[in-house]
Design a protein that fits this description.
It contains 3 helices and 9 strands, in the order ααβββββββαββ. The protein is α+β, with helices and mostly antiparallel strands and 135 residues long. It has a single domain, classed as Immunoglobulin-like (Sandwich), CATH 2.60.40. The chain has a 4-stranded antiparallel beta sheet with strand order 3-2-5-6, with no helix packed on it. The chain has a 3-stranded mixed beta sheet with strand order 4-1-9, with no helix packed on it. It is elongated. The N and C termini lie far apart (77 Å).
């Protein structure tokens, strides 16, 4: 009986949902020390303010089916041009290949897309700023 229950539980999971967490650590680096940054989500809400270098905790997905979250970093500092850098989302290899072994069709089309754990964000966000020409 225990084997039947274990098999049932495994079949109702998605591989990325087993491996990934709801949030991800994303270090933000810049070619300019102590640049002021503001991170916004896809709705335009500010989710973080601070200075570089820093590390932020972000959710790779929104609530919803097949809904990756999109983030934008706005970096500014006196003497430099304001810079905008996206934090890109990607689909996890655990989603593609792990569901072949563990999750099956339920993992591919239900569990991982609903939980959003099939997505991950850039492992490091690099902000490039250039000196301003105005005097």
């Amino acid at each position: 009986m225990k084997k039947v229950v274990l098999c049932f539980v495994i079949l109702l999971t998605g591989c990325a949902s087993i491996i990934r967490d709801n949030t991800q650590v994303v270090p933000i680096q810049s070619n300019v020390e102590e640049a002021d940054i503001e991170v916004t989500n896809s709705k335009g809400a500010v989710v973080y303010t601070g200075q570089t270098p820093t590390t932020v905790w972000l959710k790779p997905s929104k609530n919803g089916y097949f809904s990756p979250e999109k983030y934008m970093i706005k970096a500014s500092k006196k003497g430099y041009t304001t810079s905008y850098t996206p934090i890109e989302w990607h689909i996890s290899n655990w989603y593609w290949f792990g569901n072949l072994v563990f999750g099956g069709l339920i993992g591919y089309f239900i569990v991982d897309p609903l939980t959003g754990k099939m997505y991950y964000l850039d492992e490091v966000a690099h902000v490039q700023m250039s000196k301003s020409n105005s005097k």
